[in-house]
Design goal:
The strands form four sheets. The protein has a six-stranded mixed β-sheet with strand order 3-6-7-8-9-10, with helices on both faces. A two-stranded antiparallel ribbon has the order 1-2. It has three helices and twelve strands. 27% of the residues are buried. The model has no long low-confidence stretch (mean pLDDT 82). A hairpin with a 2-residue loop joins strand 4 and strand 5. The termini are far apart. It is α+β, with helices and mostly antiparallel strands.
């Protein structure tokens, strides 16, 4: 039965009303599409990480695609990374296993969900690293968790003007200030 739920979910039409579908515990959850600031930060981070991953042949990173976590859960992490040794999980249209790294950027509509539900989901399904970036507040923060003995342990928490290096890219310096869109003066 569960596999039918997952297959039926994957067959849902893409919604033209600018919402995203996710399947969580067999329930279809609908959330709004990204706003501009959120999308800007996501794009900046994707470019930075993408260049690093490409230069060092580490694997593949993509954004916002249906990803299988278990028979009751199909989510769309803002960014997801598969290390080279696990690229066999991307043979079809969608990854058939949880990624090595998930990155979520908080927005007002999803903050609680990403901090609690996705935290628990990624921890339970063995996502090795989980980054949460908060571009909303003036004191934007980035937090990184790494899975140790099945539990997430906080590995770093940095304010928005800091330069961070998080697992699994410890030799990459990410200037957080460059991720957040600065309001243009009139």
């Amino acid at each position: 039965h569960n596999l039918h739920v997952c297959r039926d979910f994957m067959a849902l039409p893409k919604d033209p009303t600018k919402t995203r579908y996710e399947l969580v515990n067999g329930e279809v959850i609908v959330s709004p599409a990204l706003n501009y600031d959120h999308a800007y930060a996501l794009t900046q981070l994707l470019v930075l990480l993408g260049m690093h991953i490409d230069q060092h042949d580490l694997g593949e990173i993509v954004s916002d695609i249906d990803t299988y976590f278990d028979v009751n859960v199909v989510c769309r992490p803002d960014l997801l990374f598969f290390q080279k040794a696990r690229l066999n999980h991307i043979s079809g249209r969608y990854p058939d296993a949880p990624p090595d790294l998930c990155i979520e950027l908080l927005s007002p509509s999803n903050a609680t969900y990403d901090l609690k539900n996705k935290f628990e989901l990624y921890q339970r399904t063995g996502v090795t690293d989980y980054w949460i970036l908060d571009p909303m507040s003036q004191t934007a923060v980035a937090v990184a968790y790494t899975l140790l003995d099945g539990q997430y342990v906080e590995m770093g928490r940095r304010p928005d003007d800091d330069v961070v290096s998080f697992q699994p890219f410890k030799d990459l310096k990410i200037p957080l200030g460059k991720l957040w869109r600065k309001p243009k003066s009139k």
